[in-house]
């Protein structure tokens, strides 16, 4: 079994927010449905997250999007047990975004631009 975890920054237009966008950091792990117990156990182990079963595919997913859970549980876990390879760079970038959000920077034009710049280099867009 290999866990394929991914770190995301989601930016959505939302007129209800002062700056017109909502920003969310996210961690997810997807696995074949035969490993559903493993992913469900992460909720208990980390004390956060949600479990989703995708009916159109044999896929299950563990997802954390709550900022406080990310800040207090997920990020410290990966500081203690570091991510390897290119995903370590995505984790580093996610931590940068979390720090901007923690300081309320995502509520300013400068902060949003910084987050956009970081997001543009993450995951499949990464070239370094």
General description of the model:
With 128 residues, the protein is α+β, with helices and mostly antiparallel strands. The protein has one domain: Endonuclease I-creI, CATH 3.10.28. It contains four helices and four strands, in the order E-E-H-E-E-H-H-H. It has helices spanning 36-46, 67-80, 86-102, 109-119, and strands at residues 4-13, 21-32, 50-54, 59-64. The radius of gyration is 15 Å and the shape is globular. The chain starts with a strand and ends in a 9-residue tail after the last helix.
- β-sheet strand percentage: 25-35%
CATH architecture: Roll
Strand order of the largest sheet: 1-2-4-3
User: Remind me, CATH topology?
Assistant: Endonuclease I-creI
Report the CATH superfamily. Homing endonucleases
Number of continuous helical runs: 4
What would you call the structural class?
Answer: alpha+beta
**Mean of all residue-level pLDDT scores:** 90
Helical amount:
40-55%
Q: How would a textbook summarize the main sheet?
A: 4 strands, antiparallel
Query: What's the β-strand tally?
Result: 4
The helix/strand series, from N terminus to C terminus, equals EEHEEHHH
Spans with pLDDT under 50 lasting ≥5 residues?
none
Radius of gyration: 15 Å
CATH class, please? Answer: Alpha Beta
Give the overall silhouette.
globular
Number of domains: 1
What's the end-to-end separation, in Å? 28 Å
